[in-house]
Each structure stands twice: as C-alpha cells, then as structure tokens.
Amino acid sequence: MMPRTLYRKLVDSHTVATLDEDNVLLFCDLHLMNEYTSPQAFAGLHEQGRPVLMPEQNVAVVSHIIPTHPGAVRVIADPASALQASNLKANCERHGIALFDTNDRLQGIEHVVAPEHGMIRPGMVVICGDSHTTTYGALGALGFGIGTSEVEHVLATQTLVYRLARDMRIHVDGQLPAGTTAKDLVLMIIGRIGAQGARGYVVEFCGPAIEALSVEARFTVCNMAVEAGARGALIAPDRTAIDYVLARAPDIDDAMRARALAHWATLRSDADASFDVQHRFDAGEVAPHVTWGTSPDQVVRIDGTVPAPEDHADEPGRRSAAQALAYTGVAAGARLDGLPIQHVFIGSCTNGRIEDLRAVADVVRGRRVAPGVRAMVVPGSGAVKAQAEAEGIAALLAEAGFEWRQPGCSMCLAMNDDVLAAGTRCASTTNRNFEGRQGRGAITHLMSPAMAAAAAITGTITDVRKLERHHD
C-alpha cells in the first residue's frame, strides 16, 4: 500500500463509496448540532417523512443564542432565539437525540462540551454546522464544519458527500518561550501564511513544540486553523491525547481499551507519506501576538509595529489593510502596546477551558480590573464553570472586578445578549475579529487569555511578560 498521511487514513477508513476522483461518501461517527444551523434541516427531513437514521450518533447543544447573565434560571428573552431553542428541543425529543438544553447544568459551547464528556476519540470523523469543528483534530479526530443542507443529509443517512482536501503539514520546532501560549503560536502562524494560506487543505500539526502542548492548548491550535482557511486540522494522537480521552470515557472497558490502543497507534502519517505543502516554524520565535485589523492574519507581535498598507505586496492586500486600519482606528507604524481598551472578553471555544481560566487567574491574582474597563469571563461549559468555582478561580476573578458569567458562546459573536456598542475596543480571547463580529462598529483585538487579563488590569493592551506575577 502507498504511504498515507493521517488525513487520508481517516478518510479511507470512513469512505462508504467513492463517487469520483474528488468526492467520496463519508460515514460520520458523530454529528453535533446547535440551535441555528439545524432548524431548516429538520424541517426538510419532516417534509419528506424521513426519520433520523442514527439518533444515538447525534448530539445537540444550545450555545450561540443563550444569555450568560448570572442567575439560577436562564430565559432566552429574544423571541426568535427562544423559538430556535424550543424547536431544537422539540426536534431532539421527536427523534431521540441527546440535548444539552438551555438550563442543563452541563450546557456550554459544543466544542468544549463534546470532548470533556469523552464523545471525541482518536480516529473519528466528527461534523457540525459550525466552522470551528476543526477543534477536535487535537485528539486525532477529523472534524470540520458543514452547511445546513448537509446537516439534513447527515440526519437522514449519517453520511456526507465529501470533497477531498489536499494535505499540508506544519512542523513546529523548539519550545514556546515563557509568557507565550498556543494562542500566540497559532496567531503567528496565521499571520505568516495568511487567512487563505491553508485554503483547501487539511493541516497536520507536528513537531516538538506541538508534542509539548497540553490537550487544551492543542484544541486552541486546531480551533484557529480554520482562520487560515483550513478545511480540517489534525495532531496525531500521542500519550497525552490518549490519557485525556481515557480519563473521560468510562465506557471503554479493558477489552475495548486494548483494541482501541492498538488502532490509535496506527493513527499517524506514514514515514514516507507525501504532503502537498509543508511549512516549518520555530516556537522559540513566538512572542505574545495581538491582531490590529479585521482578519486574524492581520496580527503583530506585541513588541512590533502595525504595518502600513503599502507594506503589502499586492493591491488586494493593500486595500484590505487600509480598510482595516480605518475601521479599527489604529495607525500604521503604531505600537499596540499601551493602546487603551474599554472591554475585555475571556471565553469562547478557543479559550474558554479551565487551563485558560487558570492562566487568567495567575495574571490577575493580587490585582484589580482597571477603572473604566468592563471585563467578562464566560466559562466554556457548565463543567468548566463548576471546576473554576471549586478551585477558587471564580471568586478570585469576581473579587478583582471581573464579571463571572454563565457558560455559552456569549460575546464571541453578536448572536445573543452580550453585544459591544459601536466604537468599543475589546481585548478578546475569541477566534475572529471581523467587522461587527462582536457588535456593529465594535473593535476586536484577538489575544491569549493571559494577554487579555493583562489588558483588563492595566486598561491597555499590555505585554503580559512585563507584569510581575503574584502568587499565593
């Protein structure tokens, strides 16, 4: 057999039929649904009188539209959003699909909830009507987003007509310097290869720097890969990933465990496998990164300066940069270090996990949120919220002046009650800084949780490496 990449192994093992040179019928092990991409799919299913073929391999989560205000009971006040949630519940009850509903204590963001409950295992194909499904590549699963019409097809058949991607490998040598994180690494990579640099590819991340990352840090890298245009992201499952899965999958008994470990050991690219494109980076060059524009690739080191439009080689790049500078109000040649912010948002499927909140607490300990800054922390799930409260993180942040919220997507995108006013500048741990992403006219600067925490306590975008850490 020809040497194969990890990506091709996963596709081959899930191919029900080869349709033509570029397309296969792909079996999907797990289909995750949310409230905003499933209603039309269910409606189409019902119009044709079709059942859900494999309801036990579908899971639904209410996440994007849900309010995160503190309180024992959450009520979705917006009528259209409330209808989406009630429709999802009715559809799940009708078809016997598991649902993390509005007031489920384990409710949260789908891409945080699924892996923490052991739903994601190496070698799976996982799909969802959300682009950040690439997150699951951190566990050696092929995850990717699909459209509403495809959701209907999966509900009816548990398969998907899938167009094959090309293979890209990104090898990262060295180790991350102190004061930097996986978020800084992936922002640097996106900045270098561009927002379309991985378009049409599934990216396999590898190398010593990737192997040294925790699973939660790997989630961040794979989650953000789509911001370089990637159709998927993968990291070969190693002991770190396997231990994470086994700790969260009590259904894997001794007999199943032996078979699983044997199979998972094969989930890596063959030594002679061919990649269409390869990139190599040195983690030792990573510094804290912050976006200056309206695309994740419009990013700069915190100790660097904002590029001028004329620094771009092509006319579209120059136009995009000029438009971004006009929108964000940042000047070419300026430093972002010291730029005043009015809002801080910490959360999302990119950086709403317990490790992220611990990093925030390490920066905040012994300090307070700067006057005039509103700082919000939204845990990625009910389980993350409970753990942060048990560890004293929630109390520490509340005492420092942060708002401690209920879990959900919240201010990652303006689809719920948490919306920024026009002109508000926000230090955000989310994945996208598009125009209006967090509110019409709002300005988003993407950064790591530690950097966002530093912004909250100084009132400006600040190099977290310059802050002395306070410890108990």
UniProtKB/TrEMBL annotation:
Pathway named in the protein's UniProt entry: Amino-acid biosynthesis; L-leucine biosynthesis; L-leucine from 3-methyl-2-oxobutanoate: step 2/4
EC number of the protein: 4.2.1.33
Cofactor list: [4Fe-4S] cluster
Keywords: 4Fe-4S, Amino-acid biosynthesis, Branched-chain amino acid biosynthesis, Iron, Iron-sulfur, Leucine biosynthesis, Lyase, Metal-binding
EC class name: lyase
Subunit structure as annotated in this protein's UniProt entry: Heterodimer of LeuC and LeuD.
Similarity-based family: Belongs to the aconitase/IPM isomerase family.
Protein name: 3-isopropylmalate dehydratase
